[in-house]
Every structure is written in structure tokens, then in C-alpha cells.
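Per reviewer request, we include the raw input and output of the structure prediction for the construct analysed in the revised manuscript.
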Amino acid sequence: MREFFGFGGYQRTPEGYMSWQHLLFVTLLILTAIFLAVILGRKYRHRPLRERNKVLVVAAIAIDAFELFKIVLLCFREHNPMHWLTNLPLFLCSIQLIALPLAAFSKGRIKEAALDFVSIFGVLGMVLGTYGAGQNYSAYPVLGFDNVVSGITHSISGFASLYILIAGMSSLKKSNIPITIAILLAFCAAAYIANVLIPYNYMFLMRGDGTPYDIFYNAVGGSPVLYPLCVIGLFLLYIAVFYGVVFLIRRRKQEGTHLQQ
């Protein structure tokens, strides 16, 4: 148990980023998330919103409980009560720690915007935080506390995203696009300020740290101005592509309906 939780430092050599152990572990997590999202989404799709929302409540409580447990344990493990400063919800993936509870517990326009935000970024966060987490799987054993909890929380994020879409809880209205962008840019600004003050590398706005962001970091020569702009630009591009696909699918469905009539 001491080895699993990493007390005194892991004794095992990390299997490595993109090792078969890494790929097998995260693939099993993602397949589990997809399976549960499909099963529960189809089960609750035609139920009242109140019943559909119960699944999100469980997911929201679970993702925050795992993350809080991780932060508390790491503070004890590192013998540093301020270790939580490097675990703030200021990564793209960890925004779900706030957005998912808002989607589950809020009402009205806030709930609608939160549901859209989770559905847009949940799957992306799951993929980036598992297959793309070079900074974690290069440093810690695959079956160690750091990677297991990270894998679970990112998978919950992806599960919630797929469940919202399958259960028909997301509106994805054009009017919500500015809100989604505003939320993203606000977190980017907060992350950049935290990076300067702590310092740290939230949102990977300072460097790639072994993740695919290194491609862009190297492409601009590590420019402290161009690199963060590239990262933020990728986020905005993803939003544009996501909504573009959604609107294309909706238009195809409407055209198919008109043809049938």
C-alpha cells in the first residue's frame, strides 16, 4: 500500500509514456467510460430531466471526491501543506471539477451553459489526460496513485460528456458559444496568472512538459508570447470544429426529415 500511494517515493521504475502498460490501462478506462455512458444515456434518454440529472449528480460528486482525496493525500505525502497550490483546477481537464457540479446542481441558463461546456470539453479532456499525459506516465508507475486517480477523474469527465450528449441534455445553442468561450478564456487568464505567481504550468501555457503541446512549443522556439497564444488558439479552434460538426449533423437530419415528408 505504501508503494501504491507513493509514500517515500515510488520504488518501481515508471513503465514510460506510450508503453504498452500505459496504453492498456488508459484504453480500459476509456472503454469503461464509453460503455457506461452509452448504457446509462440510452436508459435515461426518454426519462424526465430530473431523473437524467441524477447520473450527473453522482458523476459530479465522484470526480470532486477523488480529486479532493488526491490533494489531501499529496499534501501529507509531500510533507507540504501548501502542495495544493500545484493542484488547482486550472488545467483544461480539471475545469470539469467546477463545470460538472454546475451542470449537475445549478438551474436555468447557468446549467444550460455548463452542460454545453462539459459536453464540448469532457471527451477532449479524457483523451488528453490519458493518452496525452506524457508528464505523468513518464514520471510515475502506471498502477500508482498519481496515475490511477488521474485516469479515473479524466474518465469521469469523458463519461459525463458522452452521457450528456446521448441522454439529450445538451442544447448546444449558438447563443451559448460566447459563454463557452468566455469561460475558457477566464480560466486561461487565471491559469496564466497562477503560472507567473506560483510559478507552475497550468493549462500547459508555459511549456509542453512532455505532452503533445511540445510540438507547438518547439515550433515557435519556446516563445513566451507565441506559445501560449498557440495553445489558446487550439482551444478556440476545437470549439469551432465541435460546433461545426454539430450544426452539420443537425442540418443533415433536417434535410433528411424534409425529404421523408
